[in-house]
Amino acid sequence: MSFCKDFGKDKVIFATKEDHEKPSTVELPETERAPGLILANGEINWNCPCLGGMATGPCGVEFREAFSCFHYSEAEPKGSDCYDQFATMQECFARYPTVYNKGGQEDDDDESKDATNLLGTQSNVDTVDQMEETNKSSDSNNEKPTEDKSKS
């Protein structure tokens, strides 16, 4: 028969061979699904990783005000009454260009990867074009003597 012994915050369970011969009767609780951007009660989940830290950055207050205005907006089109909040948020973003990547430019690493991919793609296209031209010229060289023989 098994028994338990407490060691401070730890609990050690000693199991016998007989305990392991029968299937376990332990039932684990079902895991709760992680909340998304909008909670079940309709409120915004500011801790959602999908916001990418925007709610807590240097312009977090401005972002939360603009996003809240849009979320709760009943204007048609949605959010059209939030112009001032979004303008304030954009002004804040402009004060922190290194954080919010002013101008929407990609990171240097991404640009170099894209350039490499384009160069690789272009060289592949050139190579294929050269191969096709070589094949066409060799085909036409092979066809001419045949045509000449048939005409003679």
Q: In one word, what is the shape?
A: elongated
Look at the helices and sheets and give the structural class: mainly alpha
Roughly how many Å is the radius of gyration?
A: 34 Å
Helix content: 40-55%
What is the H/E order?
EEHHHHH
Question: Uncertain runs with pLDDT below 50, 5 residues or more?
Answer: 109-132, 134-152
What separation lies between the terminal Cα atoms?
105 Å
The fraction of residues in strands falls at 5-15%
What is the makeup of the main sheet? Answer: 2 strands, antiparallel
Question: What strand line-up does the widest sheet have?
Answer: 1-2
Mean pLDDT across residues: 74
Q: What is the total tally of β strands?
A: 2
Helical segment count:
5
Description:
- Helix 2 packs antiparallel against helix 3.
- The chain is built from five helices and two strands, in the order E-E-H-H-H-H-H.
- The longest helix has 44 residues.
- The chain is mainly alpha-helical and 152 residues long.
- A two-stranded antiparallel ribbon has the order 1-2.
Primary descriptors:
152 residues; mainly alpha; two-stranded antiparallel ribbon; 5 helices; 52% helix; disordered C terminus
Compact overview of the structure:
This protein has 152 residues and is mainly α. Helices cover 52% and strands 7% of the residues. A hairpin with a 2-residue loop joins strand 1 and strand 2 (10-14).
